[in-house]
Fold Sugar transport protein.
Amino acid sequence: MPAGGFTTSTTGGDFEAKITPIVIISCIMAATGGLMFGYDVGISGGVTSMPSFLEEFFPVVYKKVHEPGLIESNYCKYDNKGLQLFTSSLYLAALTATMFASVSTRRLGRRITMLIAGVFFIVGTILNAAATNLAMLIVGRLSLGCGVGFANQAVPVFISEIAPTRIRGALNILFQLNVTIGILFANIINYFTAQIKGGWGWRLSLALAGVPALLLTVGALLVVDTPNSLIERGLLDEGKKVLKKIRGIDNVEPEFDELVMASEVAKEVKHPFRNLLMRKNRPPLVIAILLQVFQQFTGINAIMFYAPVLFNTLGFAGDASLYSAVITGAVNVLSTVVSISLVDRLGRRILLLEAGVQMLVSQLVIAVVLGLKLKDTTTSLDKSLAILVVIMVCTFVSSFAWSWGPLGWLIPSETFPLETRSAGQSVTVFVNMLFTFIIAQAFLSMLCAMKYAIFLFFSAWVLVMTLFTMFLLPETKGIPIEEMTDRVWKQHWFWKRFMED
């Protein structure tokens, strides 16, 4: 092994590359965008279960929760459109911002786009922490959403382009790992801020989002842009210089020549979004869109957004619900680490298929327990059944965290050709945020209307996505990004019909 790291051989289309410190540091810094995203996802559920927050901004919900006689069903405690809008407004802004982020990523580069995301995050954090009315609260969430749109557009592409092929999957999942760490930190912080006397703990929870926001902003100032981005913008000499720096070798000509060739092809494409609709680009586009739809219809965000609220609905006391959310957050982090260790060894498909079975079983058990034991007027589950529900939720979360969570972002970021990569990633983020918004806006109402059957609804989707993976999702492990067409799409039994010589 050469000094400075491992080497990837040039056989089979892979290019020589050491795993250099600058690659690891750059990817870690870039992945802090995931930390911010995760913190925003996790913090809202805990904050909306705090009595002082509800009393100040959602007094109708506060009365329903603390005066049970006002509601007919135990499942409907938190059914409120305004409360759902507080959570979902972030994703509404994100799906709009991602279209602008696509242009920014292509014309200004991946690094500048991450910097813009950091600024949006800082502004949103200040507005939320200082909010004195619902409008200010929503505007702050909209600013955070713009940050999510820009960060989720730039970070996965940045990591996929800068990472050596042999560890691209593991490094890319750093983004998702940071998402899970952000959710865990948010749940832990909510647990402690809920204990603060005086009712201002929710402000501290929202203000501490400034920490990952600053990390992302500073990280974006320190990292170098990717060679792909520099070459795409005509900065060939700088692109080669950065390529030598990140690969840790002088002989980068084979990879550099391929990047230049891909860039020349990309420059011929004047309308990348229109180009996405071409027949040859349909396989990565269709897969990217379906992965985002399926990811949200696993039901994961219904659980992660509203974990404390959900556990409250199931009859857990306030502290117990936050504590249970911390447990699921910890499982989320540990399981994502499992994905990092296995994704480049076992591949993408096997993780998705195994997780499909695990998610299906755990959701069916939850539905049966709630259907038989949690009635409309029941105030709580038996202790043993409540523990079983938490275990099943953790089982579900763990399987998602090593499969559909990280791979839903990884696979689209590594399958689009350079000429449509920014546009493809933009569509990926747009669809993800659109369906995240739909689930966030609808979940509490669905829980009220469907009761335990909501878990049967998500189970049906898990079955569909597992069958999709089995028959239509190709393996992309160890394939250089610029060789996906020849080595993946042209070899697949179904997608090869869309390829042209």
